[in-house]
């Protein structure tokens, strides 16, 4: 039974369309060209509707209710007379509550906007709504108009609103509507202009609106403007309240300026405004995020001393801190303390604990917490099950994950949409992306809006699978349905682009998302910085780091660790150690990954003394070296010729609770081969590996094949290759390139036999293959042919790396010399043959592009009008 079928049976409310009145149902076919809402407009327009299917369904249902009640006056007037007054009549009918926002009325305005796009008309509609007791709706309409027409015409709209204001409309009312509309549209410069006009008129802006503005400015790194607005509030009013201070404290803490954030908390009482539970929660959370768990608990104690009672959010925040540090036993005790103090845990509390145990690899304990949760009367939600199912899938325990999922649907009362989220997430973890998209399209077709969580699951699934363009398509659909992307949406898209080395597109996308006011956090910058390091672009990574700091975004432990790791990998050890010192001076505690990155870098450059100092520092800070640390040191000691010390490290592993893994044995086998060739030492470690029930992987076999190639034992290579193929181990590009290298160095007759085997295996050449062949051309005294092939390769979609450039430099030098090494005719023809095969493949190869029929159908229905734009434009402008 497919996931779609299971979900359809589990979630009947989602998959069944809401019944519509007969006269509307006749026209509601998805595949009919008839525009249901279009019948209410006197003229028919061919332009695409800005209203998605969910909004359209909601409007149709509300209109059918109005018609059933016989309240047809406003509709009849609108259909016969297209005017601002008649449109306002319909909008008021659709807006049921004067004091609440009405998304249905706004959706109808979006639809009608095609006929009312003249700014003068829009201005009239806004004034009529505002003076007619629909102030919130007026602001929403105005916000939509300025977001569609953009800043320049938005300025014209504000002038029209000002000049055409009715006599009974106050100056403050007009300016406040404009101010809030520009804020909702994310047009900060226009909002600041209106704020300046309000101040020049001697008016006091709304405190809540100013808090929204300061929040937006903080998110965009405009800290100097934020402080100016805050100082104006102190001098000119309105007096900052707790919400204003909380906005400032939150902005400072997100930036990483904990000292100033905490200082603001201390001075709040001077302005007759005491810190509330929200203020303390913000500061406690910030200290936890930046690894200062001790300070977070000290603030918790201070909070109580000041008479501010913690709430469930406070306890959940501190629980998250403990789980993040892996202190699960203390987390369970803290949960008991929470209950004793009369603070009732909620589903989110239990999800934090369950997530902590899953990340610690203790799924049994996670299930025990799930049982406790149920026993205390809390229903697990989709997040609970998603944490557990994802944990099972990550540990290759798919059957247990599916069993848990089936049990959840059979025994729990999950709401239909939560069950849908869970199924979509599970399908993505299982890499069943067609089923996930099918579920998504199924509910969209029926006018039910899926959650951001559901879209994020599918976007992340496509990005993990390397299908970046498909991930973009899902993102476009998400925007089309009016959902705001979260930080996870942005991060998934950036990871997908970085994995495909499309870094310029990734940076452009992130910039546009920031401009649009979408949620972009420090993780996005970290992903991009790591992406630049992975392609060897150290300058690009450092430029982005400086850009991040200029924007006032304070790096966290993960960002610092990514920078240190990248610099260490590229052998910039002085710079990496300098960043490590800066990180420590900021009060951020390096984690194991940070230490391991530095230790690896120092070992690679042979500075074992500095590496050992870092290991000692790591222990002093309460971090025990792990399997990664040990493997790094084993490799480092072997590399420097300290075989006994490396072996001693290996023998000590079990005494400190570590079990050698495949990487450990591969490190020892590789080091033995490099030091002594493929001999007794390498065989000893391979036998030890098998005795310890540690299965060799493709890396093990590649090391062995490389050793045999160095000894020109190509017949043995074939035997090893056949052996691991029979075990189901799949060769990779390293296998092929190692064999190519060995083949080129072998006798011609054996080389031809091996080439035939490689061709049967359908190997995929890459830059290493090209470099191997060009090197052998040079070794055979064919420098001129090397340069000829280099020119041909420049015509193919092929990018030279540093190794290629070094080979070509050598070829230029040799080609300019008088003498050449002797050439073997047969061998030279053989190299030409291999190079022709590689060249033809590089010219013709296009990665297979599978496109889900369901996804294609969804995109065609939802966002076909966006095609033709650039990727970043499509992502930010649906």
Automatic annotation (TrEMBL):
| PPR repeat extents | 241-275, 276-310, 311-345, 346-380, 451-485, 486-520, 521-555, 556-590, 591-625, 661-696, 697-731
Report the Pfam families cross-referenced here: PPR, PPR_1, PPR_2
Q: Is Coiled coil one of the keywords?
A: no
Q: Which UniProt keywords apply?
A: Repeat
List the transmembrane segments.
none
- Repeat recorded as keyword: yes
Q: Which family does it belong to?
A: Belongs to the PPR family. P subfamily.
Query: Per its record, how is this protein called by name?
Result: Pentatricopeptide repeat-containing protein
Q: What is the species of this protein?
A: Aristolochia fimbriata (White veined hardy Dutchman's pipe vine)
């Amino acid at each position: 039974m497919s996931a779609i079928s299971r979900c359809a049976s589990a979630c009947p409310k989602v998959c069944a369309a809401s019944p519509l009145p007969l006269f509307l149902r006749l026209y509601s076919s998805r595949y009919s060209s008839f525009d249901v809402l279009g019948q209410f407009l006197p003229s028919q327009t061919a332009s695409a509707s800005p209203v998605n299917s969910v909004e359209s369904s909601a409007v149709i249902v509300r209109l059918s209710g109005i018609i059933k009640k016989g309240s047809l006056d406003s509709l009849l007037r609108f259909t016969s007379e297209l005017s601002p007054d008649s449109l306002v009549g319909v909008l008021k009918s659709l807006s049921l509550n004067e004091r609440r926002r009405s998304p249905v009325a706004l959706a109808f305005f979006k639809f009608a906007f095609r006929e009312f796009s003249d700014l003068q008309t829009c201005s009239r509609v806004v004034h009529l709504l505002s003076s007619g007791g629909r102030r919130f709706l007026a602001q929403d309409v105005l916000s939509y108009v300025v977001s569609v027409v953009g800043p320049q015409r938005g300025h014209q709209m504000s002038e029209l609103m000002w000049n055409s204001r009715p006599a009974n409309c106050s100056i403050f009312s007009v300016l406040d509507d404009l101010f809030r509309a520009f804020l909702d549209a994310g047009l900060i410069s226009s909002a600041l202009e209106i704020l300046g006009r309000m101040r020049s008129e001697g008016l006091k802006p709304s405190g809540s609106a100013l808090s929204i503005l300061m929040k937006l400015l903080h998110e965009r790194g405009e800290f100097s403007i934020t402080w100016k607005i805050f100082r104006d509030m102190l001098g000119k009013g309105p007096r900052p309240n707790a919400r204003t201070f909380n906005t400032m404290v939150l902005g400072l803490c997100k930036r990483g300026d904990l000292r100033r954030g905490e200082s603001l908390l201390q001075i709040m009482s001077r302005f007759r405004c005491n810190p509330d539970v929200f203020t303390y929660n913000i500061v406690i959370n910030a200290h936890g995020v930046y690894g200062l768990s001790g300070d977070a608990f000290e603030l918790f104690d201070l909070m109580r001393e000041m008479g501010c009672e913690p709430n469930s959010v406070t306890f959940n925040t501190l629980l998250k801190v403990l789980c993040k540090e892996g202190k699960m036993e203390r987390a369970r005790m803290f949960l008991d303390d929470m209950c004793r103090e009369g603070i009732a845990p909620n589903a989110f509390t239990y999800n934090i604990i369950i997530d902590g145990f899953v990340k610690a690899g203790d799924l049994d304990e996670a299930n025990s917490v799930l049982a406790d949760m149920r026993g205390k009367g809390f229903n697990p939600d989709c997040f609970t099950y998603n944490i557990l199912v994802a944990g099972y899938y990550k540990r290759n325990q798919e059957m247990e994950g599916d069993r848990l999922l089936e049990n959840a649907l059979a025994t729990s009362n999950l709401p239909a949409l939560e069950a849908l989220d869970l199924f979509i997430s599970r399908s993505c973890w299982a890499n069943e992306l067609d089923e996930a998209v099918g579920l998504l399209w199924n509910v969209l077709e029926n006018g039910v809006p899926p959650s951001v969580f559901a879209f994020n699951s599918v976007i992340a699934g496509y990005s993990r699978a390397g299908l970046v363009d498909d991930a973009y398509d899902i993102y476009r659909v998400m925007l089309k349905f009016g959902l705001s992307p979260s930080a996870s949406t942005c991060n998934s898209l950036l990871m997908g682009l970085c994995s495909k080395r499309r870094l310029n597109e990734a940076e452009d996308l992130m910039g546009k998302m920031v401009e649009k006011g979408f949620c972009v956090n420090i993780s996005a910058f970290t992903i991009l910085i790591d992406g630049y390091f992975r392609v060897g672009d150290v300058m690009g990574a450092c430029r982005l780091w400086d850009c991040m700091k200029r924007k006032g975004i304070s790096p966290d432990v993960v960002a610092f660790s990514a920078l240190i790791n990248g610099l260490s990998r590229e052998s910039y050890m002085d710079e990496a150690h300098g960043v490590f010192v800066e990180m420590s001076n900021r009060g951020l505690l390096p984690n194991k990954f940070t230490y391991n990155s530095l230790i690896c870098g120092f070992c690679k450059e042979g500075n074992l003394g500095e590496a050992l100092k870092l290991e000692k520092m790591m222990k002093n800070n309460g971090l025990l070296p792990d399997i990664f640390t040990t493997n790094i040191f084993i490799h480092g000691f072997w590399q420097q010729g300290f075989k006994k010390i490396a072996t001693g490290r290996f023998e000590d592993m079990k005494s400190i609770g570590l079990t050698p893994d495949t990487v450990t044995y591969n490190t020892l086998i590789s080091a033995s081969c490099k030091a002594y060739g493929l001999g007794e030492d390498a065989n000893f470690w391979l036998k030890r590996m098998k005795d310890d029930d540690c299965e060799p992987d493709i890396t093990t076999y590649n090391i062995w094949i490389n050793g045999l190639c160095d000894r020109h034992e190509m017949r043995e290579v074939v035997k090893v290759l056949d052996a691991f193929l029979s075990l189901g181990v799949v060769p990779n590009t390293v296998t092929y390139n190692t064999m190519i290298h060995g083949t080129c160095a072998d006798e011609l007759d054996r080389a031809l036999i091996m080439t035939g085997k490689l061709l049967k295996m359908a190997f995929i050449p890459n830059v290493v293959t090209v470099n191997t062949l060009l090197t052998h051309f040079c070794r055979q005294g064919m420098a001129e042919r090397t340069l000829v092939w280099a020119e041909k390769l420049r015509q193919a979609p092929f990018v030279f790396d540093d190794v290629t450039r070094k080979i070509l430099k050598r070829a230029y030098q040799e080609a300019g010399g008088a003498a050449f090494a002797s050439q073997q005719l047969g061998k030279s023809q053989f190299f030409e043959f291999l190079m022709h095969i590689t060249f033809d493949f590089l010219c013709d190869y296009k990665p297979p592009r599978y496109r889900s029929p369901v996804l294609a159908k969804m995109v065609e229905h939802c966002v076909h009008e966006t095609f033709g734009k650039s990727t970043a434009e499509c992502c930010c402008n649906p």
